[in-house]
Design a protein that fits this description.
Rossmann fold, 21% strand, Dihydrodipicolinate Reductase, domain 2, binds nicotinamide-adenine-dinucleotide, 35% helix, alpha/beta, single chain, 9-stranded mixed β-sheet, 2 domains
């Protein structure tokens, strides 16, 4: 079972930039960070609208003087306090991640940044170098990778249960933007604006999730890719609301990704299917407690979360928080990741390199990969769906 006993000397003093009232993802960060009492939420610049941010922050329990009008003031003022923040999560629109993460690292903070990490690959590489120089954690919030069955899939591939990987099928194809909802939704509006969203809408917004997860499960690196993208709602052009990508991986495996916001009727359709020489694995985020294990010539097995037959590589973090048969979900996945971030931050603070080498969490390398994938897809699609090198 999950170990809920306190493992740090003291909770990490934690702040947020973005994630203000009504935002899509702010609550998820707060709920996950505070779940195991490893982070204490003490300061923030929650909103572009300073007054609304202060009002919201105080209603979340922050002291009024620690609800700051913007991230620069947050970092400068907190640095002056003995009890200032030690880590910050960035949950703002895509184009702002780079400048805020850079300022946070320069201020000596550990950083948890939303995906896509940045718009440009060079910026993500620069952030990685800066985090190394500052000896700080730089994590990227690939929130679905905390699920126990995703770790089970990774361990099964590692142990050779399915044999060498041949095909990876990825999708994140929902139907929530099958009409022009951005007319009435601020959260959708910035996503259709290349200046804020970056050069892609749905590949960056959703495609990066199964792409990262597949890489995490298989360890395979992309060699080249080919992408076709469309804007079925014409006003979204040049940003796509639907895309298909073909991948060639190093070592000979191949793959596909379907990223879509116009898959009418679909909730998420976020699936990763890994086809090996002997067997296949399939995980679907709408049924996250199950993992399909299909051995050629045998009946399908549905592996269930919380059961003794699972490989449990890391019982401290990825283990079940409740016995099998009880549903765990999105918030448990996020809390598992924040738990991992807390242990990583603690190890950075103690300079425990051995721990960090063996401790997995979604770090900036995964963030860089996502940004590379998005940019390579745009290059391919905008040149007529041609094969392009990944690096
Ligand atoms: P949103 O538009 O719903 O909310 C953004 C919030 O950030 C708002 O409160 C806004 O006022 C605030 N904000 C914007 N610029 C700011 C700034 N410079 N300083 C302080 N606050 C600022 O957006 P969202 O849907 O919550 O997305 C935010 C980020 O999270 C995006 O990068 C998105 O890709 C990512 N996201 C990730 C997941 C995931 O599963 N990991 C899910 C949804 C969104």
């Amino acid at each position: 079972m999950f170990n809920e006993e306190f493992q740090l000397d003291a909770p990490i003093r934690w702040g947020m930039v973005g994630g203000g009232r009504g935002s899509e993802i702010g609550y998820s960060h707060r709920a996950a960070a505070q779940r195991d009492r490893l982070f204490t939420f003490v300061a923030a610049a929650l909103d572009l609208d300073a007054e609304r941010g202060r009002d919201f922050g105080t209603k979340l329990g922050l002291a009024p003087e620690r609800c700051y009008p913007d991230y620069k003031t947050l970092f400068a003022e907190e640095a002056k306090r003995e009890d200032g923040i030690q880590a910050v999560s960035i949950a703002t629109p895509n184009s702002t991640h780079y400048e805020i993460a850079k300022a946070a690292l320069e201020a000596g903070l550990h950083v948890i940044c939303e995906k896509p990490a940045t718009i440009h690959v060079e910026d993500a590489l620069e952030l990685k170098a800066l985090a190394e120089k500052q000896n700080k954690m730089l994590a990227v919030m690939y929130g679905y990778t905390g699920f126990q069955m995703v770790h089970q899939a990774r361990e099964m591939v590692r142990r050779g249960d399915i044999g060498a990987v041949r095909v990876i099928q990825m999708s994140f194809a929902h139907g929530f933007h099958n009409t022009e909802i951005e007319k009435n939704s601020p959260g959708a509006k910035w996503r259709m604006n290349p200046e804020v969203s970056g050069p892609s809408f749905i590949i960056g917004d959703c495609g990066t999730h199964p792409f990262y997860m597949a890489g995490m499960i298989t360890g395979l690196k992309v060699k080249s890719l080919m992408c076709s993208r469309q804007s079925f709602i014409e006003s979204r052009a040049p940003l796509e609301d639907n895309a298909h990508v073909l991948f060639q991986f190093e070592g000979g495996a191949v793959g596909t990704l379907w990223a879509s916001a116009i898959n009418s009727g679909s909730m998420h359709q976020q699936k990763v299917r890994i086809v090996g020489e002997k067997a296949s694995l399939e995980w679907w985020d709408e049924y996250p407690n199950q993992l399909r294990y299909e051995v050629q010539g045998e009946p399908v097995r549905i592996l269930e979360r919380g059961m003794g037959y699972l490989h449990n590589d890391d019982p401290g973090v990825s283990a079940n928080r409740q016995g099998g048969g009880h549903a765990e979900g999105f918030f448990e996945s996020w809390a598992n990741l924040y738990h991992r971030y807390a242990l990583a931050i603690d190890a950075y603070n103690r300079n425990d390199k051995a721990f960090l080498e063996s401790h997995w969490y979604p770090d900036i390398d995964g963030g860089i990969d996502g940004v590379k994938m998005v940019n390579a897809c745009v290059k391919s699609a905008d040149n007529g769906a041609v094969w392009v090198d990944y690096d």
